[in-house]
Write the structure tokens for this entry.
Amino acid sequence: MSADCEAAVTPAALEVAATRNACKLCTPLGACVAFAGVEGSRTVLHGSQGCATYIRRYMISHFKEPIDIASSSFAEETTIFGGRDNLLKSLANVTRQYHPAMIGIATTCLAETIGEDPAMHLRGLPDDGLVSAPIVHVSTPSYCGSHADGYVAAVRAMVAQLAERGSPAEHVNLFAPMCSPADLRYLKEIVREFQLPHTLLPDYSETLDGTTWREYHLIPPGGTKVDDIRRTGSARASIEFTHVASASETGAAWLEEACSVPRHRLSPPIGVRKTDELFHTLESITGRCTPAPHAAERGRLLDSLVDGHKYVSGRRAAVVGDEDLVIGLAVFLAELGITPVVCGSGGSSGRLRTAVKSEIPDKAAEIAVCQASDYLEIEEEVRSRRPDLIVGSSKAYGLARKLNVPLIRVGFPIHDRIDGNRTLHFGYRGAQQLFDRIANALIESKQDSSTVGYAYM
Amino acid sequence: MSAPTTDTATPVTPNESIDAAGVRKKMLENYPAKTRRKREKQIIVNEKQLDADGAKVLPVIAANTRTAPGIITQRGCCYAGCKGVILGPTRDIVNITHGPVGCGYYSWLTRRNQTHAPTDEHDNFITYCFTTDMEEENIIFGGEKKLSQAIQEAYDLFHPKAIAVFSTCPVGLIGDDVHQVALSMKEKLGINIFGFSCEGYKGVSQSAGHHIANNQIFKHVIGENDKPRGRWAVNLMGEYNIGGDSFLIEDLFRRCGIDLVATFSGNSTYDQFANSHMAKLNCVMCHRSINYVADMIEKKYGVPWIKVNFIGATATAKSLRKIADFFQDDKLSENVERVIGEEYPAVAAAQKKYRPRCTGKKAMLFVGGSRAHHYQELFSELGMETVAAGYEFGHRDDYEGRRVIPSIKVDADSRNIEEMNVQPDPDKFRPEGPEMARKAEQRGYRFHDYDGLMIDMKEQTLIIDDISQYETERLIEAIRPDVFCAGIKEKYAVQKMGVPCKQLHSYDYGGPYAAFQGAVNFYAEIDRMVNARIWSHIPAPWDEISPVKEVSE
């Protein structure tokens, strides 16, 4: 891990080669999350079967839902003779078992290292009509980037390989960064209440956070319909939510370029100001006012921030996770009067520092940003800056435990709490829930460490 | 209540609660012809025949064969078996994953192997996950330099006794020589450093990784420390301290006066491995993952091995007595009987409480290379019947017993894994081991005594190797078990069908389930699961009435 922490970095630390407790997952995982948000889809990882198993078990421990990922299961000789036969066999077997509406293929580092080209292999699909579902393939070598990049790449691959150009219709396309199913559900609710027809891609709000089932489903219900992905090319606009994804590499960028769909690039709607930006954008696209329930939600949020400022104002936090989430949460914490003294991510877009500093100019000097970083580097910063709480995934638990400060669990992965897939980060409602959790954690920590058993706080 | 003295296994009664052949047909019907032919050999109805001498002949099962592409398997990879399973539980070896970031991350504290360092001053690296996090330029230009640097950093940070390097898929392909890097860093730093060629594509499952891990530990660590051990010195092999199982077994051994030299590898340390050849008896729990080491130690150092099982109260008592029987020492037998006597009342009380609540219910177990067998003991102690079972990465001998080993065909996948040629060590081979074993055999004591899972399962039950997710769903639909035991990958799919799923990899973050206290924990846990209130709110897909409709009408 090439250290990229400012402040208190010794020259030796700059040359650190190993990643010590990684703060990112591998690229194909992001592609698997994205493909899981398409109706009737099955994912095949092209490479070693262990990748499918590891990624499945990791996603399942967070989402707590059935998640099936197939593999082309390379053997030792496949690494020598190539993976064509294995890939075609896997497509046939997946089809016979699941009759999918779409098959997503993502490559692993094994396939990429030997130079596999799924597109070329697919031209060898037998003409027997068995594998008839549309197939989307994406290159996701795990030695390039992180899960967040794999997610963006898979979304782009889906529109690039499925979208059809057409005369502009009424709907808009929505592209969220990797977030929770609850975030996606809420985003759809907002847009629906603006009476704005839309396609959210991917939409794993049901597939990765489903109900109990009355009948067994081979593939969990829900997800973006393949036909809707095709229609993204004729949308009136795309709204993408990201700070860090390369402006030319996203799905919305492809649609802008190839299908002339205008693009709105917004920050993920985390915190008050960034959610306001979303509502303003929706107002200008639809010509409607913000629906009253949402305006009221904003009002109650601000009222509670007034009520609770005494608990949070002037406190210090460390924020760790995916870059887009870290930036969003840092900005929100700053809105609360909490200084995000350490912002860390394993993501390597190179844009984290600039984004945090420019979004929070008045506190920029107090914030250490660790980009392309790992938990041991982040720990060094955290130890010297002594935050009152940590906001991050379950992987930050060790750090919070060592420092004896509360951990507010957000993002991915959350595998030591039950509500990873229901954790809301977006919008006024998400801000409300995060604020309540943060304020309560600080109150609880004060209460528990007090020698007097105060019940009024 | 007195301690049990007989085996509880009652194999010959046919199972009448399921139509095994019909279920098998249903599971196979949808596959393409080639895949179906393959799976037909791995989905078996347990029908034992009697040979001319009246001995039971078991059906043959295909196992340890490659999963067909596109079949969603429970299996992991070679790396997972090597780094995650075998070396993961050892607390004072720094493990470095050489490869891109994912493999290290996914094996970082995901298995619930626990460890107990005596003080904070003792090394414990279990919470750390080191990886070279290879990037594109390392794939193109090679990653050896980065690996050397990572080893140096791990050394600078912790000054550990040993560092282990694990290869992921790209490493073998780009020609990085982890063994050479390990050797030169070993010379440079003066600590033991060794590498594993456990690229994920090797073998057909994590089983290949177990073998590779065992070979290297045998080659690089065992035999390094000749400190003499006590008169009843044993190793416990293939026990990984999931949920604290090893802690309970260690406690039993301590109370019996058994000198536990090393556990492979639950709650273990480097020094324990290094000294393990000084034990007098090797006790193998998980036959699949570790029988290689037991065989090699026997050949090189003369330590015989037996199969034990500490899952289930009866099995635990039996295993303790078997160890005592080997040593032929009245004092040890007396200790063992005393400890069993101390533990048994709590077990009997728990059985009395939970058995009526669980009895007659059906269980299925699809897990591991031994758990699908061992845990049947606990279910049978609850009066529950195992109607279908199979391993994720077992071999034929784990199903049919070690007697079939000579007839197992070695395929290309297995040939790629090194079989070490082990010879007796001219200095360290202790002839008293084989001598004791010879005497014991004369009085009917059995070594290398693993008879597999099939013999212990009832007639007309289903034995399924490497069950797929698709088959799992068909099987549950057809048989409707009361509890299904597998792992987290299966858990939520199974529970969508209204059936509780007990994780036997991580124990659902509960446990321990080994030994006597563990059995009591397991009874309570299974009762909690199968009798949980929630199932009354979740009609299974096969139930007739629809509460949803009733509410909406």
Notes: The CA atoms of residues 156 and 249 of chain A lie 7 Å apart.
